[in-house]
Specification:
This is Hydroxyacylglutathione hydrolase. It contains 15 helices and 24 strands. By secondary structure, it is an alpha/beta fold. The chain folds into three domains: 238 residues, 4-Layer Sandwich (Metallo-beta-lactamase, Chain A), CATH 3.60.15; 89 residues, Rhodanese-like domain (Oxidized Rhodanese, domain 1); 95 residues, 3-Layer(aba) Sandwich (Oxidized Rhodanese, domain 1), CATH 3.40.250.10. Helix 3 crosses helix 5.
Length: 468
């Protein structure tokens, strides 16, 4: 029996390929899908089925992309119409040699969510594993807010029923295979465990021990951020994303060409470290470090204007391109030839942001001309504490709240370590804030330098949200 989990880094997306008897199926494939055909070929198997556990919100589905070279049938929950594939419902069975997959309708995260119960008939008639999509994770359960606030209670009630009437009725030893791991935005606090079981979740997952009324109230009041690109993902994954065939080829763009591209509305994304960005960068560029791209590009980039990358040495850009492709940014077009050194060697104008150490901020903590802006998610602020006198706006919502930030003061931005702080500083500078400083080390450095964080619940105004 073939079973392999394919993890997409940063997004914490899990997809799976299973097979037996020369046939294989892929569950929740990503858009750059050659990995599945490579595995199938290595096992001398043909991919005949592709299952979507639900209409994903945080990445572009790879079902159509994978069906093109394989001819495999795409199957998804029947409770919502898709622009592609075939709807399936409760109790339907699908065979792959000795493997049997049974469809369980498990709505709640989305209306059409399904789980897939796997049996290996060559060994036993008992269920071996269940692919739960976004219904059940390690230590967490799925979001119920994405259908809209007006449906949140109904979706929470449906998820409770799906969990307790379908998934948790399985034997304790059944292996749980969710669509996401720790760090995903599709759950509030997903555990950092590669594998889990029904019995372990029933015993340790705090949400599964709640009575229905408690569970529903918790989910109705749960605070979770929804990146704006989720709406685009739902649109693409319902209608069917465009085929890309291969990863986009990025063209090398000269420093002089960058200027004209900016004049035409190009989006310049600087993927260097906060310290490199602070030392000098192209005016109007935004700083999203490499591993932050999947988490934050969807907040600040549009799907129309060309995207150009800026790095120091342009290493492994194919891996960077995958982050954009998985989120549907087919408008990524180029990179600065020669890296940022080519910019200043050409004598082009550069901008800088300030940097402070924790000691610098401590010395200026009571200065009325200093405005301290905390851009962490609100749960981190509430749970881990905050710097005295700081104000809170989550970095993803910063552009919506620019009028709340004084332009006549020194803005000192901080996050946990300095990376989101640099992103926020670049956004502020792009919008005309001239005196912006990033606190290197963030709250981690602040505490390491023996400065205190206030650990009572924050009462300052905060953007609604949760873990991202």
């Amino acid at each position: 029996m073939l079973f392999e989990k394919i993890k997409s880094d940063i997004l914490a997306h899990n997809s799976y390929i299973i097979g037996a008897g020369g046939e294989a199926a892929v569950i929740d494939p990503r858009r750059d899908c050659q990995v599945y055909t490579n595995i199938a070929e290595a096992w001398n198997m043909k991919i005949t089925g592709i299952f979507e556990t639900h209409k994903n919100e945080d990445y572009v589905s790879g079902s159509r992309e994978l069906a093109r070279p394989t001819g495999a049938e795409i199957l998804h929950g029947r409770r919502e119409e898709f622009g592609f594939g075939t709807g399936v419902g409760e109790g339907e069975m699908f065979g792959l040699g000795s493997i049997e997959l049974e469809v369980l309708e498990t709505p709640g995260h989305t209306q059409e969510s399904i789980s897939l119960l796997l049996r290996d008939r060559s060994v036993s008639d008992d269920p071996l594993m269940v692919f739960t999509g976004d219904a059940l994770f390690a230590g967490e359960v799925g979001r119920t807010d994405l259908a809209g606030e007006d449906q949140r209670r109904e979706m929470s009630e449906m998820l409770y029923a799906s969990l307790h009437e379908k998934i948790l009725t399985l034997d304790d030893g059944v292996i749980v295979c969710p669509a996401h791991g720790a760090g995903s935005v599709c759950g509030g606090n997903i555990g950092d465990r590669e594998y889990t079981t029904i019995g372990f979740e029933a015993a340790t997952n705090r949400l599964l021990s709640l009575e229905k009324e408690e569970f529903v109230e918790y989910k109705v009041n749960e605070r979770l951020y929804e990146p704006p690109y989720f709406a685009k993902m739902r649109e693409l994954n319902k209608s069917g994303p465009p085929l890309i065939y291969n990863l986009p080829h990025l063209r090398a763009v000269s420093a002089r060409d960058i200027r004209s591209l900016v004049d035409q509305g190009a989006q310049i994304v600087d993927i260097r470290s906060p310290t490199s960005f602070a030392g000098g960068h192209i005016p109007g560029s935004i700083n999203i470090w490499r591993t932050g791209l999947p988490l934050f590009m969807g907040y600040f980039l549009n799907y129309e204007d060309p995207i150009v990358l800026v790095d120091d040495f342009n290493l492994d850009l194919d891996h960077v391109v995958r982050h954009f492709v998985r989120l549907g940014y087919d408008n990524i077009t180029g990179y600065l030839a020669g890296g940022f050194p080519a910019w200043f060697k050409q004598g082009e104008r550069s901008e800088r942001t300030g940097v402070w150490s924790p000691g610098d901020l401590a010395e200026n903590l009571d200065d009325p001309s200093v405005y301290i802006l905390d851009v962490r998610n609100i749960n981190h602020r509430d749970e881990k504490g905050y710097i005295r006198g700081s104000h809170h706006i989550y970095v993803g919502h910063l552009e919506e709240h620019l009028d709340e930030i004084p332009r006549d003061k020194q803005i000192v931005v901080h996050c946990d370590a300095g990376f989101k702080g640099s992103l926020a500083a670049s956004i502020l500078q792009k919008h005309g804030f001239r005196h912006v400083t990033n606190l290197l080390g963030g709250t981690l450095g602040w505490e390491a330098a023996n400065y205190p964080l206030i650990r009572e619940r924050a009462t300052l105004a905060a953007v609604p949200g949760g873990a991202t």
